[in-house]
User: What shape does this take?
Amino acid sequence: MRTYDDPCGIARALDHVGERWALLIVRELLLGPKRFTDLRAGLPGASQNVLSQRLRELEESGICRRRKLPPPAASQVYELTDRGYELEPVVLALARWGSRAPLRSAKPLSVDALMYALKSTFDPEAAGDFAGRVELRLGEQSFLAAVSGGRLTLRRAEPGAIPADVVLRTDADTLRALVFTGARLDSGMVEGDRQMAGRFVKLFPRPAI
Assistant: This one.
């Protein structure tokens, strides 16, 4: 493993997660385990070889591990260890810091990156007394967003498995446009409390650059 050979805690941390793509792999795993193919879909700019190497390094550092799912799935997934999940505040802080930089990429956000964009831009003051559970159904992926007491929690969920006040059916690009550019919320996207859906998409103001 390459090292900065510096006793500073920052340098020691970067010895483990400072290589290109490492923290973005962590981002892709924070909301739950993923197969290698799912990681490649979320990180299309990383070659297969680079992604494999970074995963190996993260495993060696005790940040992620491989696990075989029980039948009938029986596929291998990567998941964060407890030490890996400790990086979530770091990832969120970087997301908030980076969101104030000029946006120069026209590429789409991965679904998990979009979820962390929501978490990092959520405005407790805009939420006020808002309380509700919104299922974000993005194609085959589904997430439960719960807002209460000026706080947002987000987690991956099986579609329809957890009761929600409203289901918002869309895709990642459209949801990004709804929350960050004020695109119109089509009634066909909403199942349940439409007023709640309309208010929910306004809880994520883009930070000033």
Observations:
- The longest strand covers residues 141-148.
- The beta strands are 64-68, 76-80, 132-138, 141-148, 151-156, 166-170, 190-192.
- The chain has a mean pLDDT of 91.
